[in-house]
Amino acid sequence: MSATTVDRPVPAGVAPNPPGRGRRRLRLSGGTHYLVLIVLALFAIGPLVAVLFNAFKNNAEIGSNPLAPPTSFSLDNFVDAWTRGDFATTMRNSLIICLGSVIGTCVVAGLAAFALSQLRVPGGGAVVAYLFLGSALPVQLFLVPLFFLWTQLHLTDNLFGLIVIYWATDAPFATLLLRSFLLKIPKDFTEAARLDGASSLQIAWRVVLPLAWPGFLTVALIVALWSWNEFFWAITFIHTPELRPVSTSFLAFQDQYSTDWGLTSAAAIFMLGPVVLLFLVLQRKFVSGLTSGGIK
Q1: pTM of the full structure
Q2: Backbone angles phi, psi at 259, to 5 degrees
Q3: Inter-helix orientation angle 76-84/261-292, to 10°
């Protein structure tokens, strides 16, 4: 028995679709998407290229044409920026701040995420809502009371005091991110560990948290980038030049009435270089960690 195909009649006054029209429309849509992506890529990369060009120019050449490539490549701006900005000291301080912020935030957020996802915490929903609220509020609201408190505790002009502030500001988002990872871990693991006599801390340290290492890697990368680029808390609570992080090195190139844009561009390359390299090395794991955690 053979199947027959019945052609639907075309209503009067309606021209039939010519062959290939749908394909042309699909190709046009795909081309539009690529055009939008190219424009966005140029919008994101263009300022970085301009900064790279200006790092090799003097102020006169920057003033005449700030967007053109340099006529001659000179490393004088990089040498002067490294010396005047004291990048050897500020990069060391920022490295200490990043490591302390990453370790402390992972410990605090990891334990909090374990409690909210694997234990029966009274009022756990209210705690999650509080974390959402805490991550949404602007940090400038807490500046005045926090400064008075840190002054009483002698934590101003102290790297550890700045690291504790980063723990408090980064922990809400990190806890929510890690909680989304831990919620996908089956309860059978924790129940089997409890039957073997393991305590809650042992279950968290040996069973649950090691399974969420992509989430910890994502949190570590985000916290490291935030603490490396952060300027507001650093300039407020650190006053001694020998303790300032790398984000404050730009202050060395600004006078009261002018700014040396060549040195500032070279300093921006020093500051962005480690961040870009770190992200390029870990970008696949970073993106997979965000998507597998359910936060997009």
Answers
A1: 0.77
A2: -135, 130
A3: 80
Please report the beta strands in the chain, taking only residues with DSSP state E, as ranges in sequence order: none
- Backbone φ and ψ for 141, nearest 5 degrees, come out as -65, -25
Q: 3-state DSSP call for residue 259? A: strand
Nearest to 271 by CA among 95, 99, 66: 95
Is residue 291 pLDDT above 60, yes or no?
A: no
Q: What is the pLDDT of residues 158-194, one digit of tens each?
A: 999 999 999 999 999 999 988 888 888 777 777 788 8
pLDDT band, very low/low/confident/very high, at 296 (cuts 50, 70, 90): very low
CATH superfamily assigned to domain 80-292: MetI-like (1.10.3720.10)
Q: What are the structural domain ranges in the chain?
A: 22-54, 80-292
**Residue 52's closest CA among 38, 37, 62, 63?**
62
- Helix (H) / strand (E) element for 54: namely helix 21-54
- Mean pLDDT, the chain, rounded, equals 81
Helices 21-54, 261-292: crossing angle, 10 deg rounding: 140
More confident residue, 184 or 107: 107
Is residue 11 helix, strand or coil? Answer: coil
